[in-house]
Amino acid sequence: MRGSLRISVFPDDSTDAQSLMQHAEAALHRAKINPLHEGVCFYSEDMETNSIARRVHYTQIKQAIVHHRVVTLYQPLVNALTGETIAVEALMRIADEAGNLISPIEFITLAEEARLIIPLGEQMISQALAQLKVWQSENKRIRLCLNISPIQFLDPHFVPFLLHTIDQHGVQPSQIELEVTESLMLQNLQQVIRDMTQLRDIGISISIDDFGTGYSCLSYLKILPVDVLKIDRSFINQLTIETPEEPLVQAITQLAKGASLTSVAEGVENEFQVHRLQEFGVSLLQGFYFSRPVTADKIKTRYF
Ligand code: C2E
Ligand code: MG
Ligand code: MG
Prior knowledge:
The chain is α/β, with parallel strands linked by helices. The chain has two domains: 12-39; 58-298, TIM Barrel (Alpha-Beta Barrel), CATH 3.20.20. Helix content is 46%, strand content 19%. The longest helix is centred in the N-terminal third of the chain and has 22 residues, at 45-66. The termini are far apart. The relative contact order is 0.10. The structure holds ligand C2E and magnesium ion (2 copies). One magnesium ion (MG) binds at residues 89, 147, 179, 209.
């Protein structure tokens, strides 16, 4: 077993017991999340700002769950050659009391640490599947991509919840795609393979999000039931007039082709990138060049 040590010092960090304890809590958090500290961390002032921001976000997450203020936006994925919208990715926001939307970059990590990503993710999945049902009843054949955090995927209630919600909304599993990240493969691999296989058996597709940024242990592509590789935005960014070859994007596209997987380029922002990605043979494109994430109404009027 591994311990973590939190340290705050009297009188430098604080002169009263309660603040000393709070500072020590902040130090404990840092000691736990950063392996470089090897379980021991002293309090420093920047943690104060961090810990205030964390408390604010924690409250916002809790409030969003209790008051059902999870908001789903959608971003299209288009066929690289025809420009037809093939799928939409559901992207989560939470709204504060005033209705301002908060970006997932601000709260996802904290929500994962506190396991609040599970109730957040559940609200989001319910909303998105209800929306998919509306599209299906209007004969819009569109695939829905859902981001699933490793914390949520590994939770024993996740698969039963998803199956129940699919049933409840009466949607076709073949129109659902789950986006997971490479970090999931570092966890309980046997359970991951079992659950992915079960989901795939009923027609759900599995996509590896942000491909190339994780541990990229390519051997897992052989054993995992995966359908799609999403090339991370940071590689698409490198595709410029000065560097039109970007070998990593080409290599991942070829890898996907060789393994009969669909390739998706994330973060496509300009026409030059569109042309290059078409030439490389990437299957689907997604990014601000086509649309930012928008509400369900907007995506419907603009894209299908
Ligand atoms: P992601 O799944 O890789 O989603 C793509 C992110 O890139 C989105 O940010 C999207 O708005 C942004 N993006 C798309 N095209 C462009 C572009 O052309 N340029 C730039 N600069 N950015 C682009 P967003 O919506 O802020 O989401 C950030 C991350 O938060 C997501 O990355 C995903 O990891 C996580 N996330 C979002 N929604 C959910 C959710 O429902 N559940 C979970 N577990 N995670 C989510
Ligand atoms: Mg994604
Ligand atoms: Mg991504």
